[in-house]
Each structure stands twice: as C-alpha cells, then as structure tokens.
Amino acid sequence: MTESPLSARLTDLGSAGPAGSARAANGKAARPRVLMIGPLPPPLGGVQIVNRMLVESSLARDFEIHTVDTSKGALRWAVEKQDWTSPLYFVRNVWRLILALARVRPRVYHGTLHTAFPSPRTPFGRWAGRVMMRTAHRVIVLGPTFQREMSRAWRHDGVTWSPNPVEVARFEAAKPGAAAPWLQPGERSVLFVGRLSAPKGFGDLIEAAPAVLAKHPETRFVLCGVAESAALEPRLRDEVERRALAPHVTFLGSLEDADLARAYVSSHVFVSPSWTEAFPLVIPEAMAAGLPMVVTSVGAIPDFIRDGEDGFLVPPHEPAQLADRIIRLLDDEPLRRRMSAHVRARAAREFAIEIGVERVRQVLRDAIG
User: Fold this and answer.
1) Distance CA 143, CA 301 (A)
2) Of 96, 195, 271, 344, most Cβ neighbours within 10 A?
3) Are residue 148 and residue 217 in the same domain, yes or no?
C-alpha cells in the first residue's frame, strides 16, 4: 500500500469547537454544526464528487454543514500533484480553515488538509500516522482491510470504514445500451475511466490490447480521462499510433455527469488496471452502469469485488492476464450479462449515496454523543 490510494478518501474527524447545543428561535434544538474540509468541484475528480454527494445528501437535514474547499481547481491533477505551488495552497487552506473555525465554531470537523498519508508498512509511516491521527476521535477509511491495517499501525480504536458511494440514479437515467457516437455498429467497448498515467495502468492496457483485438477485432478501447500534463497527452497518442492501435482506440478526454454516464452504459466491459488504489469511485460507478469489470487486486478493491461474480481480479503489472480476462468476458455473452445484472443490483443495494451517508451519519453522531 502506498501513500496515494489512502489519501483519496481518508477522513479525519475531530473536535473543533464548543458544543453546538444552542436552541433555535422556534425552541427546537439547533442542528450540530459540521465543518467539512476537502476539495469540491470543479473539477469533477473522485474525491470532489464524493464530497459533493455528502454535502448535498440528507446529512444536511440532520447537521448544519459548512465547507472549506481545498481544491486546486486543476483538471489534470486536481488535488494530488505536489509541486512548487503546493506550499502556497497549503497556506491558503490553513487560512481558510482558521477563518471557518472562527466563523462557524463547529461541533465537529470532517475531512483533512492532507492529500497523502505515510505508509503504515514502514516504521516512520506508522509513527507519523499515529502523530497525525492522535487528535482524531474517529477515522473513516475505505474498506475492512484498511480498517485492520490502520487500527493496528496507528494504535487507534476509532477507525471505521465506508466505501465510496455512487449516484445510482444518474446511471439508471442513462439508457442502457444507448448508442454512442464513438462506436460503430457491431463494435464492443472496453472502457477505461481515470487519469491516463502509468500508475493507473495505462501502459498495461495498451500492452494488453493487441491480444484482445486478435481474438475480438470488433473491440474498441474507450479512454475517458486526461494525461498528467498537456505535454504528455500527445506522447500517449503517438504511442497508440506506433503500435497500430489508433483505429481501435478512442480518447474521449474528461467527461462529466450525463456524458460520463453515457460512456459507461454504452460499454460492455470496464477495466481498471491500476498499480495502486484505495477504492476508486470508478468501480461503484461501473457497477451502477451494470458493467462487468477486470480490475487489479489492490487496496480495498478485493474487499468489495468478488472474482468470478462481479468480474475478474488480476494482479497489477500483468497485461497478459488483463487481456485474458477481457477476452473471457467478450467470449461469453451469457456470463457477461449475468455479471451485469449482478453488479447493477449490488450498486443499488450496497453503494447508493444514502447507504454511505448513513455510515457517516452514525460516525458523526457517535463522535458528538
């Protein structure tokens, strides 16, 4: 486990002000004030979308929610990229937090100014994690595996887990099997959604593509996302050209909301060959769209994806296995359809917004109570 997958959605919850027990003017108890700290759209990265869902959810009925937006507003890296501007953004965010604490005087704060956490698998990482989490009454991580590892590494009894939720209705509104302008009649789409970078497995997918096309020449690899920099993107396209894959690869760039939902529901297989992850939002999104998946067995993904039932788990850095599992799904249409129905049902049952919100609500109430 590395720093970045955990940073995607680790939530630090601690006391940050006096008890908000004042009575409202109508005599009813005022809602507890909660200060949420983290990136909000734009752009629509995974963390931003999850935070937006929480802010707009039924939590606002039970809590008076205020926000400190830590987004850089940059499409290509959004939050994670560390460069010379990072100290400036950190100072900006700390100042925003100070002002918000003085103005809101929240009962709790939910979120973190960190975008990366030390690995719990090194002595320094365990020590640093204990120091950072010492003031947190509760910590929410993305899955049971993280809960066990972080509880042990940080010696913290207040670690619980909640996976990223998904706006199921958005995918239900998109017509399954809807035509997409980038697909020709008879083509079948293998969809990748995420940053076009080596850690996201972009190179492994390109390595796997020739074997898939040899068996299924009707396949189109649809890539939804952008590269880490504007200069890198032409090089990625040149690599696709060099391998003679251009007729079978479509770069859609960054899509949002209804356009992104259409990319999902018009596809046949979802792939996420990342080298390292936590539990990326693209997985519950693919499930909500009814897409069987071929994903790497990293982070909290094995906690939620059942090999052979929801799709297939493969090791990272293994393009041959990636290609083999994609071919199996394209070979066996009855299997693909069974998996499609299975993951769609699971998304509504396990990853809908209000299911995830209820977990967060219970943590907030527990910390306040």
Assistant:
1) 8
2) 271
3) no
252: nearest Cα among 180, 319, 186:
180
Q: What angle do CA 64, 65, 71 make, to 5 degrees?
A: 170
CB count in 10 Å sphere of residue 256: 12
What the block records as the tokens of 52 is: 């937006």
Which residues constitute the domain of residue 88?
Answer: 3-165+352-368
Pairing of strands 108-111, 138-141: unpaired
Q: How far apart are CA 208 and CA 215, in angstroms?
A: 12
Give the residue from 254, 249, 303 showing the smallest Cα distance to 280.
303
- Say yes or no: 221 and 285 in one domain: yes
Number of domains in the chain: 2
- Bridge-based pairing of strands 11-15 and 138-141 is antiparallel
Consecutive sets of 10 residues in the chain, 369 residues long: mean pLDDT of each? 33 38 55 93 86 94 94 70 82 94 90 75 91 90 94 94 94 77 94 95 97 98 92 93 97 92 95 95 96 97 97 98 98 97 97 94 89
CA 281 → CA 19, 168, 197, 254, 272, distances in Å? 34, 12, 17, 15, 11
Q: Which residues sit opposite 253 in a β-bridge?
A: 224
C-alpha 369/C-alpha 362 separation (Å) is: 10
Residue 273 identity (one-letter amino acid):
P
Q: What stretch of H or E contains 252?
A: strand 249-253
Tens-digit pLDDT profile for residues 332-361? 999 999 999 999 999 999 999 999 999 999
AA identity, residue 173: A
Quote the CA–CA distance of 117 and 137 in Å, as a whole number. Answer: 18
| Cβ proximity of 34 and 364 under 8 Å | yes
Rounded to a whole number of angstroms, the distance between the first and last alpha carbons of the chain is: 33
Give the predicted TM-score (pTM) of the model.
0.89
